[in-house]
Amino acid sequence: MNIIFKIKCWLNDETSNVNSSKRFTAYLIDWFIGALFMMLPICLIWMFNTHNLEDMGHINLWMIQNEISKESAIFAGCIAIVLSLFYYVWIPYKVYKGQTLGKRIMNLKIVKKDNTDVDLKTLFIRQVIGIIILEGSFYNVSSLWHSLLSLITNLNFTGILMLMGLSISVLSAAICMFSKSHRMIHDRISYTKVILYKGE
Questions:
Q1: Backbone phi, then psi, for 150, in 5-degree steps?
Q2: Could you tell me where the DSSP H helices lie in 98-182?
Q3: Most confident of 53-57, 69-73, 175-179
Q4: Residue 88 and residue 101: Cα distance in Å, rounded?
Q5: How many distinct helices (H) and strands (E) make up the chain?
Q6: What is the SS3 assignment for 112?
Q7: Which one-letter DSSP state was computed for residue 59?
Q8: What is this structure's pTM?
Q9: Which has the closest alpha carbon to 43: 29, 26, 57, 62?
Q10: 106 touches 68 (CB < 8 A)
Q11: C-alpha dist (Å) from residue 183 to 8, 46, 187
């Protein structure tokens, strides 16, 4: 009974003033731009080592490992993760406070639950632990870190991590749709919310 009460309290919060379609559009923009940041080092390493432009459309770490070397695949994966973190964490921390490019275009902003600006720790919890690791299927960088972890450890975690991430993502989307605040799991564990923001 106590657990049910805590869950209800966790889900029951203020009504959001953000239109769901607006937030979804911002997500699509971020998905596309984030994928460009992530794929840049992977494509460059592939191109400079193989000169094969035909396979660029479906290149991944496993192909780099098979055609070039495991070390090159791990290096490409690490650089791709760093560039992804630059986009999803550093830009909303230092460049546009609380805003990825998608959120800036759609006039949205990530803030703490008390309406103060997000700090680096909060963004790390929200964007990395919440979205990339836990939810694990909203952005391409999630599948990248699954592959990178599998390459480094020589154990295939890809399938199980993708399944777990997909399950948590579906739950998170359901919580977003059926709660007044439209706060997803990554918002709740980081104590953040998304608000309308027109800028200074």
A1: -65, -40
A2: 101-105, 120-123, 140-153, 158-178
A3: 69-73
A4: 9
A5: 9, 2
A6: strand
A7: -
A8: 0.87
A9: 57
A10: no
A11: 14, 39, 5
